[in-house]
């Protein structure tokens, strides 16, 4: 399992964060971790807060939609951007919750009777892939000539997802990418495939911001604090799901909140050591 993050700031040397560990070691430690009820409670509180913010945004849009004055149109644009920001924030948090739960589900698989539990992990992976910020890329190319078809498939998948959810793309906040993959016996070079085929497609289509775009900018283009023209992925995280009953070489990626400085498994292990 791998986590790599690069922070770049003007006139400052880039800061690189790197962590790697064998899957078996992480699973052994995480099986002893207690249930994270605190996290679930925080997640529920966040959702309640977001529900309230969404209702407020809807009311503001209704109030200013027909106001043709210059101020009214600015307030209408701000309300639309606010709703867009809240939608993205809500979906990103829910995607993170599912991704984190998937890691815990996989870590909890008992070594003596794994099959039924691995099937549950596979179902969690399928649910994650159906999220607006989740993508099932299928199987990695394994034969000569398949690379170009895989690349085209990734571009088509990302473009279709953006067309289906216009309020969610491009994101107005920094994001990272978590890749879940089912290892194959041939041991594909996931790192190079990811860097050469997957990341360029995401950056080309999604235009990830380096910084938070102002959620309350009073214009449609959102030109405000944090706007940037340079696409950027905050971090890349790779999680191997050995034994999960899905075709070998399958890769599912999920966008993740860009402010996270640890992998899901690092966060779980750190919490485990505090108990």
Would you mind describing this structure in some detail?
This protein is α+β, with helices and mostly antiparallel strands. It has one domain (2-274). It is 49% helix and 16% strand. It is built from seven helices and six strands, in the order ββααααβαβαββα. The chain has a six-stranded mixed sheet, with helices on both faces. Strand 1 and strand 2 (12-20) form a beta hairpin. Helix 2 runs antiparallel to helix 3, helix 3 runs antiparallel to helix 4 (115-129) and helix 5 runs parallel beside helix 6. It is globular, with a radius of gyration of 20 Å. The two termini are 23 Å apart.
In short:
With 275 residues, the protein is α+β, with helices and mostly antiparallel strands.
Question: What is the secondary structure topology, with strand pairs?
Answer:
Layout: E1 2-9, E2 12-20, H1 23-30, H2 37-64, H3 70-107, H4 115-129, E3 134-139, H5 146-164, E4 175-181, H6 190-206, E5 235-240, E6 250-257, H7 264-274
Parallel strand pairs: 4-5
Antiparallel strand pairs: 1-2, 1-5, 3-6, 4-6
Helix pairs in contact: 2-3, 3-4, 5-6
